[in-house]
Amino acid sequence: MDQTKALTALQPFVHLAMTTKDPSPRFVADLITRATSSPNTYVFTELLQTPAVQSLRESKEFQAHFKQLEQFAWGTWADYQTDPNLPPLNDVQTLKLRQLTLLSLPATPMPTTYDNLMKELSISSVPELETLITSAIYSSLLTARLSPASTPPTVHISSVAPLRDLRPASLPEMLKILQTWESRCASIVSELEQQVAAIKTEATTRRTKDIARQEIVDHAVQNIEGGGVGPAKGQPGGGKARDTETRKGKGVASGNKRDLQEQQGSDGYGEDDGEDGGVGVGVAKMEVDEGSGSAIMGKSEGPLRASKRVFGKKG
Fold it and tell me: CA distances (Å), 283 to each of 252, 277, 286, in order?
């Protein structure tokens, strides 16, 4: 049930309290009894604040009716039972106050087991308790599920209608609870922000390392594809130094034909001094007579032409 429907049901009683001229305390007390016994009236603060009802505070005879209306506005069945000066309840009022008590119980830490509810509502039998809860469900006062087979038997209340009024002294306590809750939320948000910042920093550092590692790999691949293993990042000129050392120490060409020819020329191969096709001064000579080789191979026709092949190397 929403508040609009409950307020609409209370309006006739509020209208009587506001428009009746010089209402007697007995009239106002009877109005309270009728309002709390009427169907669909579950919100009573507007009636409680009328001047006619407030006048009962000073009435010794009907002050109990004023306190009775306060119990219907924000009290519970247990609160009503602790005050013996309150007027007795009829059957409709008893059912309504018990239903309103069911709306307040989920706000307490007490488990809503069958035993706890029967004790809190002064009910002696399980069928009576289940009938009360069923009537509250069909009146749209709460959403609940009965579990009589569970251990212990429990009433699972998932939601209640916003029909209870606040006690006059409960607002500061509620503000204190809300401030504590706000402080906890702010602390949790701060911790989450710190964790997010740490994760971002770690991700940035990891990304930087990955980029540096990939640059080293790319540089090495380019050097290999270019014909030699180049220096790693941070070691400039390593590949050229090794190539120069190879040329000077071992006399090996760097890898192409033109360099080989230039090296052979600088070493003195093929330099002719003009005498017998031999090698110039300072070059060791070796002459090979190809005629003898031809005779051995059976080439005897005509005069043998002796040609000389000279091999030489600088001493």
Answer: 21, 12, 10
CA distance 240 to 236: 9
pLDDT above 70 (res 91): yes
Question: What is the rounded CA–CA span in Å between residue 276 and residue 310?
Answer: 9
**Facing residues of 314 across strands?**
283
pTM of the model: 0.59
Place of tokens 């920093």: 201
- What would the pLDDT profile of 209-242 be if each residue is shown by its tens digit? 999 999 999 999 998 887 654 444 444 444 444 4
Instruction: Please give the full DSSP string across 5-50, using - where no structure is assigned.
Output: HHHHHHHHHHHHHHHSSS--HHHHHHHHHHHHHSTT----HHHHTS
Q: How far is CA 278 from CA 87, 239, 290, in A?
A: 146, 41, 15
Contact 148, 131 (CB under 8 A): no
Query: Which tokens belong to 10?
Result: 């209370």
Alpha helices in the chain (DSSP H): 3-19, 25-37, 45-48, 51-54, 63-74, 77-82, 91-104, 114-121, 126-138, 170-225, 238-250, 257-267, 290-296
Three-state SS string over 268-281 comes to CCCCECCCCCCECC
Residue 299 contacts by C-beta under 8 Å, 6 or more apart in sequence?
none
Helix or strand or coil: residue 156? strand
Q: What one-letter code names the amino acid at 221? A: V
Alpha carbon distance 62, 56 (integer Å): 6
